[in-house]
Amino acid sequence: MSSNMHIKLVAINARYTHSSPALFYIRHELEKHLNSPHISLHQFSINENYHEMVLRLGADDPDAIFISALIWNSDIVERLVEDLSSCLPRCQLVVGGPQAQIIADKVGENCTVVVGEIEGIDPAFYQALQGGSLEKRYRGHFQVVREEGLASIYRQEDFAEYLQNRQIYYETSRGCPFACSYCLSAAEVGVYHKPLSQVQEELDLILAHAPKTLRFIDRTYNDNWRRGLAIWKMLMEYDCQTLFHFEIAPDFFTEEIFDFLKTVPAGRFQFEIGIQSTNDPTLDAICRRMKTEKVRQIVSRLASYSNIHLHVDLILGLPYETRETFLRSFEDVFAMGAHYIQMGLLKMLPDTPLFQQREEFGYVASKIPPYSVYQNSWLDADAMADLYWFCECVEKFLNNRFFVSLWRYLQVTGEFVAPVFLDILHIGKEEGLFERATTQELLSSILVKWASGREDAVFLRQLLRYDWLRLGHKTFPEMLLPVGEETLLQTRDRLYRQMPDDLEGLYVKRERNRFFKRTVCWSCGPELLDFLQLGDGQYDCLCFVAEREESVHRHQRVYCL
C-alpha cells in the first residue's frame, strides 16, 4: 500500500447544522503519524439518503474509512460497515466512538474498532494501518491525553468548507470530575485542562469567523471556577454575536462568578445544568451527590438576572425514583425558574456502572440504541409510560417562548405545578396533542380549557392574551377574543386620538403615524398591569411595539400607556 494513503473520515450527525469535532481530532492524529496522507472529511445527517451516502464513500477507491459511532447513528454505521465491506473489500474500515465496541460485536469481522481516545492509541496502530494489517481492536488511553495534552484541530480553511453554516463544537478540557453511574464518563479518572494560552489562540481562530453558535463540550466546564471565569472574560472581549453554550455544575459557583455573570449581555451565554433529581437516595445511588438547597439558590439567582438561558436536566427512570419523588423533583426545578426543563428518559448504556447493576435494580430496557428504559423496581411499565407522557407534555408547553408569564404566575403564587401539568396532559390527550402540530394556537386552546374551571380563570386568560401578543401577533385567536371589551383596533384608535404629538422614548411627531400603524395596543386592565409591574396605576393600556427586547426570550418590547 502506498505511503500517502487516501483516507475518508465519516460522521453522521443528528442534524445538518451540527458538526463533529471527532473527525478533526482523527485528521490531526493521522497527519501526525502518516506520511502525507490524502484525507477528506464527510459529514452526513441521519436523514440523508443512505444509498447516496454509500456511493459517495465508495467513490475514488479509498484505502481506509474511519467512522464515528454514536448512539443516535449506530444503526446507520452498522449498515455502512456491512455494505462498504462488500463494496470495498480492500478498504480498511475503522470504527471509533462510544458505540464502537457494540458495533464491532455485531460486525466485528468487517471492521477494526478503536475504544477510547484516538490520541492515546499505540503508534503500532498507524504502522499496521499503512501496511494494511490492522488488528480487530485497539484501545486509546485517557492517561496519554493527560500527559501529552490536546492538539489544536481547526484550520482557517475548515470554516469555509467543513464548518460553514454549522455549529462549532470546542473543548477546553477533557474528562469529568464526577462519576455518575449512568454515564460513560464514569470510567475515566481525572480531568485534563488545555493551557489558557492555547485556548486563547484557538478562540481567536474560531471567533474570527463569527459562528452563530459555539458549543463548549467540556463535560463540566466550570470544574475549575477560576479558569472557567478567565475564559468567560476572554469571550466578552470578542466583537461578535456568537451564542456560547456551556455544560456547568452548580457546585462550583462563587460570588466572583455571580458578579461577572450579571454583566453578560442577554442572549450570549446558555447554561446546561445537570440536576437529574432532587431525591437524595437517587443521587446517592448514581454517585452524584449535591446540596439541593444550594443548587436551588444558585439556579434561582441566575434566573433572576434574565440574561442567561438556563437549561436544566432531569432524568426519568433513575434508581429509587418513584412517581412521587420524580414529580417532586420536577416541582423543585420548576420553582427555580429555569427557562427550559429537559426531562429525558434514562438510557441503559452498556459499559456504565448502572448497566452492571441493571438486574439488581430490576431494569427492563431496550437492547438496541438508544437503550431506553421501560421499567425498574420503583416504576412499573405503566407508571414509566405515564411519566414519559408527562415529560412530553412539559416539553411542549414549558420549553418555548409561548407562555412565559403564565408559568411565572404559577411560580410566584407557589402553586403545585405537577397536578397542573397532569391536568393539561389529560386535556391534551383528548385533543390529540401528540398527533398534531404543536402550534401556539393549539397549545393556547388546551390551556384555555384547563383554566376554565379555575377560580382565577379570567386572570389566566389575560396572561394567555399577553403572552400571545408578546410573540408578535397582531390579532387574538378565536379562543382568546375578549367578549364585551374594547377591541385591539378600538384601543389603538383611542390612543391615537389621545396621545401627544411627541412621546419621549417612543416616537416624535413625524414618526407618529408609522408608530401607531405598526403597534398593537391592548386595554388589559389594572390586575394584569400590577402583576407585570408595569405602570403606576394611572395607565390602562399595553403597547406591543415592532422591536424585540434584549432578553433571553426576545419577546416584543412592551410599553404601558
Helix content: 25-40%
Poorly predicted sequence stretches spanning 5 or more consecutive residues: none
Instruction: Please report which band the strand proportion falls in: under 5%, 5-15%, 15-25%, 25-35%, 35-45% or over 45%.
Output: 15-25%
What's the arrangement of strands in the largest beta sheet?
2-1-3-4-5-6
Our Rg estimate from Cα atoms comes to 27 Å
Quaternary structure type: single chain
Features of this protein?
single chain, 561 residues, alpha/beta, six-stranded parallel sheet, 21 helices
Describe the structure.
By secondary structure, the chain is of the alpha/beta class. It has helices at 21-33, 50-58, 74-87, 100-107, 124-131, 142-148, 196-207, 225-235, 255-261, 280-285, 292-305, 323-336, 353-356, 381-398, 404-413, 417-430, 440-451, 457-470, 488-498, 512-518, 526-532, and strands at 6-13, 38-45, 64-68, 92-96, 112-116, 137-140, 168-170, 173-175, 191-193, 213-216, 243-248, 269-276, 309-316, 340-345, 364-365, 373-375, 520-523, 541-548, 556-560. Helix 17 (440-451) runs antiparallel to helix 18.
Give a quick summary of the entry:
The protein is built from 21 helices and 19 strands. The chain is α/β, with parallel strands linked by helices and 561 residues long. The longest helix has 18 residues, at 381-398.
Question: Which SSEs are present, and which pair or pack?
Answer:
Elements: E1 6-13, H1 21-33, E2 38-45, H2 50-58, E3 64-68, H3 74-87, E4 92-96, H4 100-107, E5 112-116, H5 124-131, E6 137-140, H6 142-148, E7 168-170, E8 173-175, E9 191-193, H7 196-207, E10 213-216, H8 225-235, E11 243-248, H9 255-261, E12 269-276, H10 280-285, H11 292-305, E13 309-316, H12 323-336, E14 340-345, H13 353-356, E15 364-365, E16 373-375, H14 381-398, H15 404-413, H16 417-430, H17 440-451, H18 457-470, H19 488-498, H20 512-518, E17 520-523, H21 526-532, E18 541-548, E19 556-560
Parallel strand pairs: 1-2, 1-3, 3-4, 4-5, 5-6, 7-10, 10-11, 11-12, 12-13, 13-14
Antiparallel strand pairs: 8-9, 15-16, 17-18, 18-19
